[in-house]
Amino acid sequence: MRLPIITFGMALAFCAVHLFVGRLRWLDRTPRSRWLSFAGGVAVGYVFLHILPELGAHASTFEDATGLDAPLAEGLVYTLSLVGLALFYGLERALALSRGERMAREGRDRPHHPVFWLHIAASALLVALIAYLLNHREDPSAAGLALYFAAMVLHFVTADFGTRADHPEIYDARGRWVLAAATLGGWALGLLVELPELAIGCLFAFVGGGIVLLVLKEELPEDRKSFFLPFLGGALLYAALVLGETYLAAA
């Protein structure tokens, strides 16, 4: 477990992103801000250099806890990740359809309130687990925690910016407070409760798929008019930091 004061400071930084992303006016532009593309690149680097390897590591936990054969245990982990990706994809599609329906009927480019709140609830689950993992990560090093924190801060910037764009009125009035509360709740749960490795593996696999979907949906759509070079730079910089940290840890 990490020093609580350090992880608490990191959780507060996550909350600050949730609460104040609407004030980053310079991000709200077309074509897409280069900083958002850079942040997206870092988040994609996190997906490939942390999420996917950790999913593989959790496969051994599933194998030991359930007695399943290694290929079946690994398949189960990735199936849970696929379920998470499919769920968040379904939520994104529901938002898009709801916005289209309200635009056609009422001339308002906003999703229906229940659909948006369902999206907020799913996002709250994700941010709570991310905050929980501040106190329970497989990588015990300070450098590993710092890289995790940096990647998640930038991920929250892009994810919260996209969520707020769907319905800024609800997000600013109540949605951001729900996400901040979920963050602090997840951090506190990490101090008070140490879940079994199997439970952490299930949750991580599920939300790992959600993170993959959220990262890619913010960068890939053509109407985002994203910038490739900042995106590539963010991914390469994060990869260099991770590889450097791994090399120093092994030396």
TrEMBL record:
UniProt-recorded name of the protein: ZIP Zinc transporter
Keywords assigned by UniProt, alphabetized: Membrane, Transmembrane, Transmembrane helix
Highest taxon above the source species: Bacteria
Lineage: Bacteria, Pseudomonadati, Pseudomonadota, Alphaproteobacteria, Sphingomonadales
Segments passing through the bilayer: 6-24, 36-55, 75-95, 115-134, 146-163, 175-192, 198-216, 228-250
Annotated organism of origin: Qipengyuania polymorpha
Keyword Transmembrane helix: yes
